[in-house]
Design a protein that fits this description.
homodimer; alpha+beta; Uridine Diphospho-n-acetylenolpyruvylglucosamine Reductase, domain 3; Vanillyl-alcohol Oxidase, Chain A, domain 3; 2 domains; 7-stranded antiparallel beta sheet; 5-stranded antiparallel beta sheet; globular
Chain lengths: ~550, ~550
C-alpha cells in the first residue's frame, strides 16, 4: 500500500504525529515548573527486555513474535502512567510473546495451548486502554502472550435490508468505516480513540461513542456476537430483540477479555447522515446550564451531540474564553431534515438563559443546503478533542501530568460531585505536586436520569515521580466518586487500575456470579488475569 | 376500601368479568364444531387438593396459607393450557403453601428456610405467565412454596429531579400508575397483562411494553435493582449509565426467578404525555406494508406505536374487514408537539402505497387541542386488545383452542417466516384437530433490524384433549421458529414451556455461565427449578 505510517510504541497514535522536542518545550512552557528538557524517546532497537519465559509450540510459531518492538508496544495501554513508564524504559511487564492470529482458528489454537501451558493470554485490540486493561506481569503463570487481533480487520458482510454488518473484532475505526462507506453506511461510533482502537476493544470495554444521548455505548448496536472461550465458541443468534432469558451478549459486553475473545459481531449500522445541524450556547451559571441539559436529556429529542463544557474546558479547547459554560448541540438524520428538532433544542437553551452563539436566524431555517456545521465553537472543540492525546504525550515528556477520568451520576448529585471533584482535586494536586493544578470538566453523554462527566487533570509532575504522583491524585478522585456513588467508569472500563473502586461498586452477589462464570468459561484462568476479578492465586 | 373485586382463580383477570355461560355459548357459536356446553367452572371451595407435603416453621406461619383457593390460584399461570387444566380440575401441581411476604425481610426468611428444608420456591407476581413460569410439581423437593409478592405493592419514593421512582416488585400495573399519577408521572409500561401483572414479574421476564420502538422491553427503564438471593442481597447503584464490567442488572433481567427474587427497583419514569397523535394506514399488500414499517423502524422517528395487523388480525379486532393490512401509528411527547413527526410517518406510509385512513387534513395540523386519538381503527384495536383474554377463556370453556405466541426476526426473514407460520400452522391445526383453524399476526414491536411478530391461533379443540392438542400445535410452531432462527420468545419469557426452543437458541457457552451463576447464587437449587435451566436431579 506504500506510505505506511508507523504507530508509536510508547505513546499515542502515529509516530510522526508526536510532538517534536521543540514542540514539547514550547507547549511545556505554558505550564510553569515543568522539566527543562523533554524525556528522550527510548530507541526501540535498544530496549533491554528480559528473555521470554515461554515458547510457543511449532504449529503456533508463525503467529508469534518475540521481537522487542512488538513486546514493548504490547506492554501497556495508553494511560498517562503507561506513557511515563514507557518513556522511562520501565518494561518489566512486557509480554513474552505477541500472537497475531489471522483467523478464528488461530485464536482457538492459542487459547488451547495457553490453557495447557498455563500461559496468560491478554487480548489486545488497539491497545488504547487507559485503565491497565492490557498489562499483566504474569506472576503465577508460565508466561504472558499478548493476543493482538489486528489481522482480523475485515467487514465480512454488509446486509442492507437489516442495516447490519458482520465485522471482525480487530478492525480499527477508520478501516471499518472505509469498508462500510462505499455502500453508504457507517457504524458511527467515534470514541476519542477511534483511530487507534478496534471493534473488539469497544465491545469488550463497553466503549462510549458518537451519540451523546440514547445509544451512548457500543452495546446498543450489537445484534449478535461471536466469542472464543477456552471451553468453546459462543455465538448468539442475529435477533433484533429477544426476551429469552438474560441476554448472552450482555455478559460478554464489558467482559474485558476475562471471559473470552470476541472475534466478530453483527453490528447495527447506520445510513450516512444527510441532514446535520449544530449550534452552541453559552451560559453564565453552572446551575442554569445543567438545568438546560437536563431538560434536553428528558425531552425525548435525543440529540446526537449534547456536550457541556465547563469554563476551564471551554477555554482549553478554544471554544470560549470568558468564563462561561458552553453547550454544543448537534442533531442529525439520514432520513429527514432536523431543523425542527434543532429549533426545539435552541428554545430549551434560551429558556434556561443560554445565549445561542454564532447562530444567525438563517442558520435555523429549513435550509439544508450546507449540512455541515457552520458553528466555529463546535469545530474548534472537535479539533482539540482529536489533538489532545498527542499534546498529553508532549507534556508527559516535560513531566507534566495530564490525564482524564470519567464517571456518571444522577442529576441531583452532579453539582455537588462537580464541586467536590474540582475543589478537592485542586487541594490534592497542590499537596501531591506542591503546585496548583487544573481540573476541567465536560459532560460527554447525558441520560434522562443523569449525565456522564469527564474530567481532565493537569498538574506539574516531578521528574521521576510522575506516575506515582498521578496514582495518588487518581486514588483521591476514585474516593470522591465512591463517596457520591458515581460509577467508577462510564466508558473507560475497569481493567486493573479501577479494580478498587469497582469492587466497592459491584454488588457482591454479582461478583459471585461473575466469578462462577469465569471459572466455567476459563477453568485454567488464563484470560486476562486481574481485570474485573482478582488474578487467581497460583 | 369496599367494593373489592375478586380475581379469577382459574382464568384471566376479574371473576366478574369472565364470560357467562350464555356468553360462552354465543361466542362459541361463531366457531363451528365446538362443544355444545361450556365447561363448568369448578367450585373453589370443593377443590380436592393433596395435603401439603411441608409445613413452615412457626416464625413463618403468619405469612403462609395452605387454603385450597390460594393453592389453586397459584398452581398455574394463564396460558391456554393452564386455563384448560384448571377448568378440568387438574391441580396435581398445586404448591403446598403460598407465602405472602410483607417486606424484604420476610423474603429473606422464606429463602433461608426453604434452602435448609429443601423446599422449592416459585416467585409469583401477578401469575400471568403464559410459559409455565410459575408451575412446579416439586419432584425431588420436600415441597413447593409459591412466593406471592403482591403485598410489596408500594411506590416508595418518587424522585422528580432524576425522573425515577423506587417501586416494590409486587406492585401491579394499575396500582403503580395510581401512585405515580398524582405527581404527574407514569411508568408507561403497558403489556397486555398490565392490569394483572407486577413490576417484579415484568423485570424477571423482560416484559414488552407500551413503546413499539426504541424502549420496547422493561429492561431499558431500569436504573437499579434489588434482588434477594439465597447467598445475599444484590443491589446495584443508581446510575444513569455505566461501563463498569458486564451489567449486573442485565443478569437478573430475564432471570425468571431462577437466580433471585426481585424485591424493588428504581425505575425511570416519564412525565405524562401532553401531545399525542395517532393514525392508521391500510395496505393492499404485505410486501409494501412491511417495507413501510421497515422504513419507519430505520428512520429514527421512533414512534411510540407502530403496530402492523395482518388482514385476519385486522378483521378480528374490527379495524378493517376488507382483507387489507392495517398499520396503527402513534407519536407522543410530554415535551413538545408531535405533528411534524406524525407528518413524516404519514409520508412514509403513503410512499409505500398506504392509504392513510380517517386522517382529515386538519388532523395533521399543528393543533393539539384534542390530544387524544380521533382514529377509530386504533381505538377499536385497543379495546379488542384488552378484552381478548376474557374472550379466550370463554372460548376455552367451549373447548376452543385460542392461544398466542410471539417472536422476533430480521427483516429479510419476516415474509418467509410469516408465510411458513401461517401456512404450516394451518396444516398442523387441520391435522391435529381435524378442522381448519385460524392464524393471525400482528407486529407488536419493531427495530431497525427486524420486527417482533405476534401470532394468534384459533382452532377447534376436542373436549378433554384441548391442552394436548395445543401442545402439538405449539411444538410445530417452535420448530418453525427454530428453523428460521427466530427467537423462541420476544417478551413472553422462557419458563418451562419454551425450554426446548431456548436450549437450541442459547449458546452452550452462555448456558455454562448461567448454570455456574445459578449454582453460585442458589447453591441448594431452590429457586424456580426448571425455568431457563433443567431442574437439578435430586
Amino acid at each position: 500500500m506504500g506510505n505506511q505510517r508507523t504507530r508509536s510504541w510508547w505513546g499515542w497514535g502515529w509516530e510522526d504525529a508526536a510532538f517534536s522536542d521543540e514542540e514539547c518545550l514550547a507547549y511545556g512552557a505554558r505550564m510553569p515548573g515543568l522539566a527543562s528538557a523533554p524525556y528522550p524517546v527510548p530507541d526501540a532497537r535498544a530496549l533491554d527486555l528480559a528473555a521470554p519465559r515461554t515458547k510457543a509450540p511449532q504449529s503456533l510459531q508463525p503467529l508469534m513474535s518475540d521481537a522487542p518492538l512488538d513486546r514493548a508496544s504490547h506492554t501497556y495501554g495508553k494511560a498517562y502512567r503507561d506513557v511515563i513508564r514507557a518513556l522511562r524504559g520501565q518494561l518489566d511487564a512486557a509480554p513474552d510473546l505477541v500472537a497475531y492470529p489471522s483467523d478464528e482458528a488461530d485464536v482457538v489454537n492459542v487459547l488451547d495451548w495457553a490453557t495447557t501451558a498455563e500461559v496468560a493470554v491478554v487480548p489486545f485490540g488497539g491497545g488504547s486502554s487507559v485503565v491497565g486493561g492490557v498489562e499483566f506481569s504474569g506472576e503465577g503463570y508460565a508466561g504472558v502472550v499478548s493476543l493482538d487481533l489486528s489481522r482480523l480487520d475485515r467487514v465480512l458482510e454488509i446486509d442492507p435490508v437489516n442495516r447490519a454488518a458482520r465485522i471482525q473484532a480487530g478492525a480499527f475505526g477508520p478501516a471499518l468505516e472505509d469498508q462500510l462507506r462505499p455502500d453508504g453506511y457507517t457504524l458511527r461510533h467515534y470514541p476519542q480513540s477511534f483511530e487507534f482502537s478496534t471493534l473488539g476493544g469497544w465491545l469488550a470495554t463497553r466503549s462510549g461513542g458518537h451519540y451523546a444521548t440514547l445509544h451512548t455505548h457500543i452495546d446498543d448496536f450489537v445484534e449478535s456476537m461471536r466469542v472464543v472461550t477456552p471451553v468453546g465458541i459462543s455465538e448468539s443468534w442475529r435477533l433484533p430483540g429477544s426476551g429469552a432469558g438474560p441476554s448472552p451478549d450482555r455478559l460478554f459486553l464489558g467482559s474485558e477479555g476475562a471471559l473470552g475473545v470476541i472475534t466478530e459481531a453483527w453490528m447495527r449500522i447506520q445510513q450516512r447522515p444527510q441532514f446535520r445541524r449544530s449550534v452552541s450556547a453559552v451560559f453564565a451559571e453552572a446551575t442554569r446550564a445543567l438545568a438546560a441539559v437536563r431538560e434536553i436529556a428528558q425531552s425525548g429529542l435525543n440529540p446526537a451531540n449534547c456536550r457541556l463544557l465547563d469554563p476551564g474546558e471551554a477555554a482549553m479547547s478554544g471554544t470560549s474564553g470568558d468564563g462561561q459554560w458552553v453547550l454544543v448541540l448537534g442533531v442529525e438524520s439520514a432520513h429527514h431534515p432536523v431543523d425542527d428538532a434543532l429549533n426545539l433544542l435552541v428554545e430549551i437553551a434560551r429558556a434556561h438563559g443560554g445565549t445561542v452563539a454564532t447562530l444567525a436566524p438563517s442558520a435555523v431555517s429549513a435550509s439544508e443546503a450546507k449540512p455541515e456545521t457552520r458553528d466555529q465553537a463546535a469545530a474548534n472543540w472537535r479539533s482539540a478533542f482529536l489533538r489532545m492525546p498527542y499534546a498529553r504525550d508532549g507534556l508527559a515528556r516535560m513531566s507534566g501530568i495530564v490525564e482524564t477520568f470519567e464517571t456518571a451520576t444522577t442529576w441531583d448529585r452532579i453539582e455537588a460531585l462537580y464541586d467536590d471533584v474540582t475543589t478537592e482535586m485542586g487541594e490534592v494536586i497542590a499537596k501531591v505536586t506542591g503546585a496548583p493544578g487544573r481540573v476541567n470538566c465536560r459532560l460527554t453523554h447525558v441520560y434522562p436520569d443523569g449525565p456522564a462527566p469527564y474530567f481532565s487533570v493537569m498538574a506539574t509532575g516531578r521528574r521521576g515521580s510522575e506516575a506515582a504522583m498521578w496514582d495518588d491524585i487518581k486514588a483521591a478522585a476514585m474516593d470522591i466518586l465512591t463517596r457520591h456513588r458515581a460509577t467508577v467508569t462510564h466508558h473507560h472500563a475497569v481493567g486493573r487500575d479501577h479494580r478498587p473502586g469497582y469492587d466497592r461498586q459491584r454488588p457482591d452477589v454479582f461478583a459471585a456470579a461473575l466469578t462462577a462464570s469465569k471459572a466455567a468459561l476459563d477453568p485454567a484462568g488464563i484470560l486476562n488475569p486481574g481485570v474485573l476479578l482478582p488474578a487467581p492465586k497460583r
